[in-house]
Amino acid sequence: MTLRGGDTSRLRRINLVTTLRTVRSQGPLGLTELARGAALSRPTVEGLVEELLAAGWLRELPPESGQMGRPARLFAFHAAGGHVLGIDIGSYTLRVSVADLGGTVVAAHDEQIASTAGRAERLAGLRTAIAGALEAAGLTADRIAAVCAGTTGVVTTEGVVKLSVGLPEWTGLDLAGELRASFDCPVLVENDCNLAALAEHWRGQAGDVDELVFVLAGVRTGAGILVSGKLLKGARGGAGEIGALPLLGWHRAPVHLTGFQGLPPGTPPQDAAAQVFAAARSGDPAARWAVEQYARDLAEGIAALVLTVDPELVVLGGGVSRSGDVLLAPVRRHLDPFCLEPPVVAISDLGEQAVVLGAVRRALDHVDARLYDFDAPLPKPSS
Amino acid sequence: MTLRGGDTSRLRRINLVTTLRTVRSQGPLGLTELARGAALSRPTVEGLVEELLAAGWLRELPPESGQMGRPARLFAFHAAGGHVLGIDIGSYTLRVSVADLGGTVVAAHDEQIASTAGRAERLAGLRTAIAGALEAAGLTADRIAAVCAGTTGVVTTEGVVKLSVGLPEWTGLDLAGELRASFDCPVLVENDCNLAALAEHWRGQAGDVDELVFVLAGVRTGAGILVSGKLLKGARGGAGEIGALPLLGWHRAPVHLTGFQGLPPGTPPQDAAAQVFAAARSGDPAARWAVEQYARDLAEGIAALVLTVDPELVVLGGGVSRSGDVLLAPVRRHLDPFCLEPPVVAISDLGEQAVVLGAVRRALDHVDARLYDFDAPLPKPSS
DNA sequence: TTATTAATGAAGGATGTTTTTATTTGTGCA
DNA sequence: TGCACAAATAAAAACATCCTTCATTAATAA
Q1: Following DSSP, what letter does each residue of A41-100 receive, concatenated?
Q2: In the complex, which nucleotide's C1' lies nearest to the CA atom of residue A41?
Q3: Which intervals hold domain HTH iclR-type (chains A, B) (predicted)?
């Protein structure tokens, strides 16, 4: 953080940002409260609010009555002043959500896709899903302020999928480049577990936890890490890939579920987890043993993550998130002995929305960073 | 970073900090260059420099002649305006360094101590070492602006040693509290590996690397991690403690050295490493095998760290840092197959000074943060 | 002596604060 | 229904701080 100095116009820019942040964080405010919140004088914020109103970043609400005296004019952030797109590229489903700048999801569209689909087919499905979501939101692509897509695999800072085990066809794809062809706004690409971790911090189990490990568990196993509330990405986008270490259990963990003997023949792998957990829940000893083995292998990898970054909280998400009642206790039992000081372990309640919500959050962060950048002129809202 | 707004006096405070940072980072400067570096007008920086000069944070150097035109007045950061203390509490040695605010070590004092020394004895030795260093620097304790001490074990944010395997007597000690009795300035306590990582970033192998894992290897094994150039401490100070995971090799690694059969009887454990490496260097097959085993166990733990945080660089330090020629190749050979994209592996060249240098850096960072804080008035130099 | 670079000083402009005065607007009571 | 009160808005004046630009003066090398 090397803040540049400058003249009084720069001071005004800073005060403008301060005012905008105050309104956003403290909800609809009158001028008097706003002046107090921003630590500025009332005439000053009045001028600043005027400017923000004219720029389209604030809107005036009808005044609230009920109190003594003249009711204050109320101002709020103009959340509809822009929209972002969050995308989750899964093995079986492509999810796209449109959210306004206040973070409210205003439209969503999912497309099912075969897990065996090739690169071209998957990209085509993606375009369909995007078009569907935009139509549902009543927006066109040029009105989108930022796009973020989550995908399995190691993603470089340039948005290239360097390595994907879950989607082998995906390896080497310049996903950001592909998406940039459809948008003329910033396009971000991120590992899906990382985005899920962001989502947990935003709207999930980790509301006030800044040191977080999110573990995606199911057919695949992966992790996203938050340090001081920010994504740990590593030098080359490879943070959290503890599953690559054969000394720990992640590489063999899913086999306990997909290879479970009690499954009806022909069960697709993505349904195996739910079936095994259901059987365990109803007391089937073989299933309980499978869950136990699965939990042990999962705990080995989690232990390495926990001992490395020492999080306050570990959130389990992905396919297992509906089976917390059966899985949570065994995981804790295996994990705790490995830890110097065991973290809290919780099950995600965001379900399948975690990645797409995290993508929305990431895109919003990008827009916010621009909005709050003193060095650039105040951007314009796009609607 | 939530910068508050304010009036023009706040702007001046920002410009003051900008000017000071410019001088510090770009060395002795004339007013014209300074104005360009700080992106401010010349009359403005002139006033600011006047203020900094009066406050004692800048000093004027004799002008340099030899150039065409009127020679510029030269200004530099007044590094002697304050001093910090860096402390390394080792098993066998207590090191104390005094540095000025420019980071130059102006005095140091070491005390040897028995590794079996109890808490009181070690604390007494520490006081002796501190007094010796202060005397060598010609300073008294009340002139010190900040103190940072490094010790083995997990250290809480409050500066309590929560758990130390290397110094069992140390566990539970409120080290920060003990030191605060001798100083009325901020006292910081930090894990020694963390400080060594900071030192590598400051003056060692990791000059321009912000994603770093430092591995202390020798009689003990530990790690310090830098993410975006900042210390990864974890929620409870337990980051980097991968040695606690029995599935990986760190817990048994030192045994290959201390338990080496070819050692002369009665070799103290702290000398074992050097002897084994020396034997391996001269071709002893048993020693080479021991080194190989040691490197494999070391690599297992490093792999977990690397796969979790994906650093650009891994620095090996501690007891093994003089034996890089024998150790580096085996470690790389065992580490690389575990990694998706192997990081650079290097040997520290800071030797035994790494921790104490890192402690100095940490104390300096603390002072700097105050100096650069817009919300507080400019502090006064202490000498 | 001249060219070059630095220091100095005055004028001008942008911004924020405080203070004052007048106005608006809904509440609550008679 | 009408009136006094409370709280917020609105506008303007007076002042202070700070930065910038521009012209002028000072010091040194060639």
Answers
A1: -HHHHHHHHHHHHHHTSEEEEPPP-SSSSSPPPEEEE-GGG-EEEEEEE-SSEEEEEEEE
A2: C17
A3: 25-61
pLDDT one-digit tens code per residue, B220-253: 899 999 999 999 999 999 999 999 999 998 999 8
Q: Which residues of B61-90 are buried (b: 16+ CB within 10 A; e: fewer)?
A: eeeeeeeeeeebebbebbbebbbbbbbbbb
| Domain CATH for B72 | 1.10.10.10
Would you state the pLDDT for residue B11?
92
How far from A4 is each of B17, B58, B229, B368, CA to CA, in Å? 9, 20, 21, 17
Per residue in A24-47, pLDDT (tens digit) is: 998 789 898 899 999 999 999 999
The reply to whether B61 falls in a domain is yes
Q: Does a structural domain hold residue A378?
A: no
CA dist list (Å): B108 to B99, B135, B144, B265: 9, 10, 14, 35
In a domain, A201, yes or no: no
Query: Which residues put CB within 7 Å of chain D, the nucleic strand?
Result: A 5-8, 30-32, 42-43, 46, 67-73; B 8-9, 11-12, 15, 40-44, 47-48, 63, 65-71
Q: How many domains does chain A have?
A: 3
The total of other beta-carbon atoms located within 10 Å of residue B164's CB is: 19
| Strand C reaches within 7 A of the A261 CB | no
What is the C-alpha separation between B364 and B354, in angstroms, rounded?
15
Query: Chain-wide mean pLDDT for chain B?
Result: 93
pLDDT recorded at residue B219: 83
Q: Taking a contact as any Cβ pair under 8 Å apart, which residues of chain B between 38 and 77 contact chain A?
A: 38-40
Look at residue B32 and tell me whether its pLDDT is greater than 80.
Answer: yes
Residue B340 in contact with partner chain A when CB distance is under 8 A: yes
Amino acid at B71: P
Rg (CA), chain A: 23
Which residues are within 8 A (CB) of A248 and not within 5 positions of it... i.e. 6 or more apart? Answer: A242, A297, A300, A301, A303, A304, B247, B304
Indicate the length of chain B as a whole number: 383
A186 and A130 belong to one structural domain = yes
State the amino acid at position A76 in one-letter form. Answer: A
Q: In the Cβ-directed half-sphere of A309, how many Cα atoms lie within 13 Å?
A: 33
Same domain for B185 and B223: no
**In terms of CA atoms, which chain A residue is nearest residue B340?**
A244
pLDDT at A1 over 70: no
Range of the domain at B106: 82-196+355-371
